[in-house]
Design goal:
single chain; 324 residues; alpha+beta; 6-stranded antiparallel sheet; 4-stranded antiparallel sheet; globular
Length: 324
């Protein structure tokens, strides 16, 4: 399979998911939806825009390769036009590049990066665009963002090459798509379902429920060495007032891997706490030991989800280390 595939040589059907800021999406929709209507008619692609008053929205392009890239080119032209318009009222002398974010299943990112980063380097050099694959999965999903920046022509060429790799390496396992949420809504679990609390309403979150159920079904991910995984929790308390048994799971993990669980300024560990509902404590380093103890407490369901998410972090870290 070569790049002629996405030049329209074959009638391959593609789906591209773009993650955009609300303001950019507003520009693409246009007054009374005229801009997006024109894009649909001229390209022949299906263009779907996610609902909701969210800071971010997902634009999905689907259809034959020729239609997809026509629609994609029109979107980029619109963003380029917006940058030019903003420059007329600005004191800035250099024009910023067009920046586009694609959303792809995390299971395909390894093929995109290549051994030791060789594939992504090849794409950068041949397309002439900057390409960055996010290290972390997007919240409540198994997808990662790929940021592409440059001239409209270089971005189009870059995305064509990314599509070739993705067609050659289909996603593995279950993909939980990223759906932007209104900022700052807490998540609760009740009756095996996940809900986001917005004002006085609890809104069902099917993606997070699916992730929760997946965690309940699966054993912890195999890591580079099996002794790095978490073990099943043990009962440490009698029933609480809510008739929910509290469990505890403790494991010693290499200090080198603790950073990837904590994340920058504690962002990753806080996200895992919020998503799972479990309490997670990481002990301070002990002199003479290369390990640190990680203790998780909570209900059986919340511990399972916390372990699943932590092992996913360790697994992606181990994959990254292996690639380098």
């Amino acid at each position: 399979m070569d790049s002629s595939l996405v030049e329209g040589g074959l009638n391959v059907t593609l789906t591209i998911r773009l993650l955009m800021h609300g303001k950019e999406v507003g520009s693409i929709i246009g007054k009374k939806g005229e801009s997006v209507k024109k894009m649909r008619e001229e390209s022949g692609a299906r263009i779907n825009i996610s609902e909701g008053n969210c800071p971010e929205r997902i634009i999905t392009l689907a259809g034959p390769t020729t239609s997809i890239f026509k629609a994609f080119s029109m979107i980029i032209e619109k963003l380029e036009e917006d940058i030019s318009t903003s420059m007329t009222n600005s004191t800035a002398t250099s024009k910023p590049p067009v920046t586009m974010r694609l959303v792809v299943p995390a299971s395909q990112c390894g093929s995109l990066i290549g051994k030791g980063g060789c594939k992504i380097k090849e794409i950068r050099e041949s397309a002439g665009a900057q390409v960055q694959v996010a290290g972390d999965m997007l919240p409540n999903s198994t997808e990662r963002a790929i940021t592409v920046a440059g001239t409209p022509q270089s971005i189009i060429e870059c995305v064509k090459q990314i599509c070739v790799v993705m067609l050659e390496s289909p996603p593995k396992g279950v993909t939980i798509p990223y759906r932007p949420k209104p900022s700052g809504s807490p998540v609760i679990f009740a009756g095996g379902q996940a809900y986001a609390v917005q004002g006085q309403h609890a809104i069902p979150q099917p993606d997070l429920t699916k992730l929760h159920q997946l965690a309940m079904q699966q054993s912890p991910f195999p890591i580079a060495h099996s002794n790095q995984g978490f073990q099943a929790g043990m009962d440490v308390s009698a029933q609480t007032g809510s008739h929910e048994l509290l469990y505890l799971s403790a494991k010693h993990l290499p200090s080198l891997l603790i950073g990837c669980i904590i994340g920058r300024q504690g962002a990753k560990i806080n996200e895992i706490r919020q998503m799972s509902g479990a309490q997670i404590k990481i002990a301070n380093p002990v002199e003479g030991s290369t390990d640190r103890q990680v203790t998780i407490t909570g209900s059986h369901a919340s511990i399972n989800l916390a372990e699943y998410l932590i092992n996913a972090r360790l697994s992606s870290e181990a994959t990254g280390l292996a690639a380098n």
